[in-house]
Amino acid sequence: MLSLIVFLPALVAVALCAVPARAGTTVFASAWLGTGLVQLGLIAGVWSGLPASGYGFVERYAWIPSAGVSYHLGVDGLSLPLLALTAIVFTATAVYTLRGTDRPKGFVLLFLALQAVSAGLFVALDLILFFLFFDLSIVFMYFVIAGWGTGAPARRAALTFFLYTFLGSLALLLGFILLALAGAPPTFDIPALVEQNPLAGGGGYGALTLLAIGIGLAVKTPLFPFHTWLPPAHTEAPAAGSAILAAILLKMGTYGFVRIAMPLLPASWRQFALVAVILGVISVLWGALVALAQTDLKRMIAYTSINHMGYVLLGLGAAGLITADDEQARQLATAGATYQMVSHGLITAALFLLAGSLHERGHTYDMTAYGGLATRTPRFAGLFAVAAFASLGLPGFSGFIAEFQIFAGALGAVPVATVVAVTGVLLTAALFLLAMGRMLSGEVRVPDTPGTPRPFPDLDVRELLAIGALLVLATVLGLLPRVLLDVIEPAARTLGELVTR
Amino acid sequence: MDMTINSDPSALIPEIALLLGAVTGLLLGAWTPRRRQWTIRVLAALACTVGLAATAVAATRPVDVVFGTYVLDTATHATRAIVLVATLLLLALCGDTVAGHRRETEFVVLVQLGALGSMLLGGAADLILLFAAFLLASVPLYALAGWAKQGTAPEAALKYYLAGALAGVTTVAGVTLLFGTAGATGYDAVADGIASGPGGAAAVGLIAVLVGLAFKAGAVPAHFWVPDVADGTPPAVAAVITTLPKIGALVATYRLLDTAVPADVVDWPLIVAILAAVSMTLGNLAAFAQTSVLRLLGYSTISQVGYLLMALAVAGRAPLAQPALLFYLAAYAITNIAAFAVVAATGQRTLAGHRGLFHRDPPLAIALVVALLGLVGTPPTAVFLGKLVVFTATVDGGLVWLVALAVVNTVASLFYYLRWIAPAFGEPGPDHERPVTRARGWARGTALGAAALSLLLGLGGGVVLNTVG
Q: Name one GO molecular function term (chain A) (predicted).
């Protein structure tokens, strides 16, 4: 079942190879959309059959037995929400892509490949399998940015992206090797390592391992100071690429923390949790402050991603510092962090798609070039306002639930850090209100070439559908959090037990 | 000690098949009209196939020593298999270059003799045989480097020959010293002799032999000929010279270090680790500024040897060291041939010449990506798995710093491989710099086949590692 979910997009991609490139966007994007819907259906099946504890739908086959590597898949409450998020965001992106793209065949093939590796990463229960999907996501995203961005800056941004995240991935690999060799016998199997807990004592070896894995995941997350690849990559990528990059690929980093760093290196995680907290808080503030200073809409959204990922690290770090008897707080912090991953995925994907629509019409991301869009393009303005409010964590949206849980969980253990991080919410509120004020209100102003005003139509039905669906989900999760929390909480509790042992 | 020496020639069918293929090819070639000399290539391929079949049969038998000097163990079987598969690929790759050429037979025969030398290096368990194999793996390739007889080929051949002559003299001096210290040439006896003899002389002798073998492997400190030869010869020749001798040389070095020289007499793990570190770093740094793809690949092979030497540095100290070396060698051979095959297929020697390759020939461009990202070590290619096991073995052997350096180097290498990949997927250049597309079916086919093989070996690596592990 899980293999089918993972490899379905890849199979469709292989089949689409046979379709001639001149078939046009509609054919390719529809095939992609269909794949996404089928994948969603399958995931719904998995969702309904998820066991109350442990991994469900486990598949395991020998792959490289002499090195302790196996093909091992499975889902639990931490991975299933992200698997579902993957299918949802990719499907929304497929709908968005229906409106047309340059060289649709290659574009859709790359995204189908990305969809397969993203889904694979979230269900991988073997470190090498995880690494394989992690690395392939970098390769495919490189081609998305280099091939569908614009000109030389895009190629430079793609190179930066590749070099940075690849360095991260190799640090990760080094950490995985250290982890595997600690096991007796050496193994890359995640559940086996969880059970053995070979580095329960922490120490220098554990610290080195956590350092390598931490750097690898921090680059991908991205956490201050490893974030510098992110703004150019986002700015230069096509809208669909930015949406996937922010919504899914960044989660590979944070997911790595809950799946690998915390349960496999509990002692070292507790020892260095304060570092995670501090880096998280710096990312929160740094991301928000730098975002505040941007006039480029896409860069601004990119920096808010760093801010939002900072909250996740705050929660996870706090979970390592909370004393063993306060299980409730730890579960709150971890569940909140996971909730934030899903919530940020939905909202930021919507924001990037909106930015893409704006660029499509105005050919610039410069916010000062726009004004009064609320009257000119009410649909765009409405959705943008909803997305902005969702992103700044207004009650009623998923982001609020997530951030509230993180803060509530972390407050007891790291009060100062939490209070400082809360100011990050204020900053994001300020920057989104500022952006809305600039672009949506006031006199109508759209960029155009001198003498020939460009048509500036409102969002069409495909854009409306894609972005709207993401925001509706963000609202549903904000109003009915139990839908997701019921799945996350048991797994968060298990994770808490693993971290404190 | 077992006094009866096994001298059953049937144990050497793969070697004999290559030799017979070469000799018959040479004789037949002299009588065959030029346009029908492809039969010699078919003959050579046949010899390789026979060799592969014999290797498969031999691999099922227990470890044995023939003629007292040649070991038949997993390492030898793997060397045979890798060399033979590589030779088959190389014979296919050279199709466009040599077909109907005046010296087609010579090319094929020289490749076979070089392959034979490489194979013998892998199995040698005696210093004298080691040197003989060294010569056999060298001399045919000197001639091959000068095979094209035009442009920069004679210069490359001369440089290669001079470097080789120097390396040969160094090797034989080292062999003499080791023999003098140990009083024997068989590896087991050498190990006993060195342990009781003067350590200093043994160290000097070992270093001299290592320098010679480093020449064969294209590693620091005897690497300087690699880029010149890679760039000065046709891609098909460059592929042979950067692939075949490395296989035997590295296995020979592994065997020498692991069985003949106790690490407590000479601290070779450190020496090899330093050579590995310098090789990978120097190869990578030098590759950065290259605009010729062949020079770039030349430097890239130097850095690849650095990664391979990591497995040697932990020989005998990590159970994965030998399987890691053998697997990485197989992965490297296939991937390296794929990269050279792409160059041979496009006929372009510069990075700029590959601009827009994807628009002209998508499958070939994808083969290029698989080959280059394979050399970087991106999953799921074979070299990734090779790197994984080599890194694991090296960490296991206690050389974490070396792995950290290799990781940094891998990232650095990405930079120049991407300098090649990025333009290949960019827009084709303006017309005047648009490269001519020539039909080079053999090279193109080899590129696609080798790239596919590299992916297959990566995904099915478990089976292979199990057999060599």
A: NADH dehydrogenase activity
